[in-house]
Amino acid sequence: MKNTEKRKCDDFFDKIEKLGLALSYNDVRLKTGYSQILPANAKLQAKFSRNVGFLNIPIVSAPMDTVTEADMAIALAKIGGLGIIHKGLSPQNQASAVEKVKHNLSAFIYEPICINPNQTVAEVLAFIERKNYRFLSFPVLNNSGKLMGTVVKSNFEFCLDNSAKISDIMLKEIISAEAGTTVEQAYKIMMQKRVKILPILDKNKKFKGIYTLSDVRRIVKGHSPDYNISSDGTLKAGAAIGVGEDTRQRMELLAKAKVDVVVIDTAHGDSKAVIEAVKFCKKTYPKIDVVAGNVSEAESAKRLAEAGADGVKVGQGPGSICTTRIIAGVGCPQVTAVYNCAKALRGYGVPVCADGGIEYSGDITIALSAGADCVMLGKLLAGTTESPGEIIYRHDKKQVKVYRGMGSLGAMIDNKASRERYGQAESAENKLVPEGIESEVDYKGDVSFIIYQLLGGLRSGMGYCGAETISELQKKADFYRLTPSGVKESHPHGLEQIKKSPNY
Ligand code: XMP
What we know:
By secondary structure, this protein is of the alpha/beta class. It has helices at residues 10-18, 70-79, 91-104, 121-131, 153-157, 166-169, 183-193, 213-220, 247-256, 272-284, 298-307, 324-327, 334-344, 361-369, 409-414, 416-421, 447-465, 470-476, 484-490, and strands at residues 28-30, 59-61, 82-85, 108-109, 138-141, 147-151, 177-178, 197-201, 207-212, 238-241, 261-265, 289-295, 311-314, 352-355, 374-377, 392-393, 399-404, 438-442, 479-481. It binds xanthosine-5'-monophosphate (XMP).
């Protein structure tokens, strides 16, 4: 297929190529231009894969074990983005995580956090604080899993003695409903009986889960237009697969869980195994979109598109935790890689996702301007409430969470899928050659707060470039190549930052 239209930045990248140079985010800034676009009016709809429809924001979370499991995927889909659940989970657990996302809007919680009647109020409050839970409604189950009562916020509020047992403060009158109760029926019961949680029991009175009033009310009253919703009314969810022996089983379970898109997540996407995996997935599951990667060269992107990929993920070594460029000595700097791959795919209708190396919101504007349709984030979403892992309280009182590369030694030891990503599935523990590091990042609060800042920066950039939509940005954007003093001038300089800024 032919590359159709010429874009404003083509001349810039042609010149750079003639010089034999390749550029990364810090090497460039965008030209400003005449604008009638106010940042608030910028439209952020974007594509990650051919058929999955528009995301409401161009942000996808990385399939990493310290970034995306169900909670992140739910939170992101509710802001309009997409979460890709990592493949370090067993095929069954990964499929359950997808199901959790898919069931979220049914407001039914299958595996709620439960407490025991013999726990003290103090123990439960400490547990809530440790886990950073924002809710205070729990079903109370005894050691055999039998529902004994419920507690809600007011039970804690009116408790004068925190050494009291949960059985002393809980609501013992059990108002429950049968399995199969719909969200509308649950809402009616909860309003009539004035209860904030409604336990669901099966015919044998076995506890199956709960409805909570806040979720039920949200659904019944209609959900936000920001939500990224599939045609069946569920939140969209993605999942990573590899090219190893469990790929078929993973795909089967993910398909049953109604995953919207799978990502063939490898360090080197331009390989026989990935191309065969794309063909297998498209042939066996034609209704599920397949995004393949990672690549960083034009020819590689084309090969994946021609094999049938519905999206191509670009980035070999730009990630914050990556050491591929240093350990293997390979990989094209990210802005050039994104430009070359996106240019090669013009006319194919196959979106490009710029994966890795995004440090600031301005890098998102740059990635999209270079031709990406959306970006994938690891570090920026790690350390949030919704990322997997506990908050660690350090000696210096800092709160941090672990963020590690899927090719780090720890990740490779912990899961085979990580070893596979780097072609070391069968290597013994002491023979692993990592291509990533293990790190920690500050605990940042809810992911919605981070995304708000990132989108604010992107909107502002679109305003400066006079682009109302992402496709307009791709057409209109043009670049400057920075010198070292340009880089220095771009950041605050000549003074010390005395207060933390939410976006720098
Ligand atoms: P950021 O910069 O957002 O990058 O933290 C996330 C992306 O980095 C990739 N990734 C790795 N690359 N070694 C690598 O070379 C690794 O251990 C590793 N783990 C993740 C991945 O593409 C992710 O989306």
